Amino acid sequence: MQEPKLRKIIHVDMDAFYASVEQMDNPELKGKPIAVGGSEVRGVVSAASYEARKFGVRSAVSGVQAKKLCPDLIFVRPRFDRYKEISKKIRKIFHDYTDLVEPLSLDEAYLDVTQNKKGNPSASLIAQEIRQRIFEEVGLTASAGISINKFVAKVASDYNKPNGQKTVSPNEVEEFLENLDVKKFYGIGKVTTEKMYQLGIFTGKDLKSKTKEYLEEHFGKSGGFYYYIVRGIHNSEVKPNRTTKSVAAEHTFNENLTSEIFMEKKLERIAEELEKRLKRYSISGKTVTLKIKYSDFTQQTRSKTLPYFISDKGLLFETAKELLYQERLKDSVRLLGISLNNLNTEVKKTVVVQLKFDF
């Protein structure tokens, strides 16, 4: 069996980040159930405060459904510039400890502190110090998971949320994973969880009892991934320069659209926004994907790969328009999006291997 590379990895995850920023900036919202994004009639919730989560309001829930779950819910418009501003302050704190920082989004990141700028042998103490500094210097709380690899650290960061941390030392990894419900495993979503339950796989221990062949038979290539992670084996390094795999822009409409002619105008604006994002980072790509979300929330994607790299709004729009007319729409449309992948970005790797531990 492949031996895991022992590192000291911290996964830091801000607590209800967007909602917490709104509550921090507007004291009148503190202690109240709020949803960032969406509205009572349209849109989708981007984030929810812990007060709202008690009622079952979560990200990706429609605004209408969120209001039904929590009649006192307060909707707040997202302010991404503000979230980015605060995210930069938090990342600056991370870089005081290590340059091996891999952001996953504005509100979470992996840190490899196997060797760190403070010379501190304890990853747990570093995580505690980072969380304290975020609270004192930024005004927000964060949770952290600490372990031998990215997967276990990510799972552990959810363990004592909010405003807590969990360390899983090398000799505790397998027992920790065996006792977890498979739905807690990062990378196992709702559909896969239900399939596992149907197969009698409820815990990490159940998952571990299955052979690699059995898991690959039922879950394809992902089966091999599940086989290794439940044994604490995940050798992916913390990559400070993560390769961008796709760039996208999308828009949810105030009223559902039924005519492709009206959709063309919307697609042109979306293509303009996508071009701005691509130019900002000097990115181009070959595969254009049109995303269509219907009024019943079902989703469809249509893609076309070109023989050359593009980033121009005109070519993006023309390709997206071609995809729009590729087949008849199933229903009225509430959201359109254009994404570009198969990009010209380069892969950059940083390899770090350390075998001694003192958690």
General description of the model:
- The chain is of the alpha+beta class and 359 residues long.
- It is built from 13 helices and 12 strands.
- The protein is globular, with a radius of gyration of 22 Å.
Number of strands: 12
Q: Which of globular, elongated, flat, extended, rod-shaped describes the shape?
A: globular
Measured as a percent range, the helix fraction is 25-40%
For the termini, the CA-CA separation is 25 Å
Summary tags:
single chain, 359 residues, 5-stranded mixed β-sheet, 4-stranded antiparallel β-sheet, 13 helices, 12 strands, globular
Summarize the structure.
This protein has helices spanning 17-25, 50-53, 63-69, 80-95, 123-137, 150-157, 173-178, 190-198, 204-208, 212-219, 221-229, 260-280, 313-324, and strands at residues 9-14, 34-36, 47-48, 74-76, 101-105, 108-112, 142-147, 165-167, 246-257, 285-294, 299-310, 333-343. The chain is α+β, with helices and mostly antiparallel strands.
Architecture blueprint of SSEs:
Elements: E1 9-14, H1 17-25, E2 34-36, E3 47-48, H2 50-53, H3 63-69, E4 74-76, H4 80-95, E5 101-105, E6 108-112, H5 123-137, E7 142-147, H6 150-157, E8 165-167, H7 173-178, H8 190-198, H9 204-208, H10 212-219, H11 221-229, E9 246-257, H12 260-280, E10 285-294, E11 299-310, H13 313-324, E12 333-343
Parallel strand pairs: 2-4, 7-8
Antiparallel strand pairs: 1-6, 1-7, 2-3, 5-6, 9-12, 10-11, 10-12
Helix pairs in contact: 10-11, 12-13
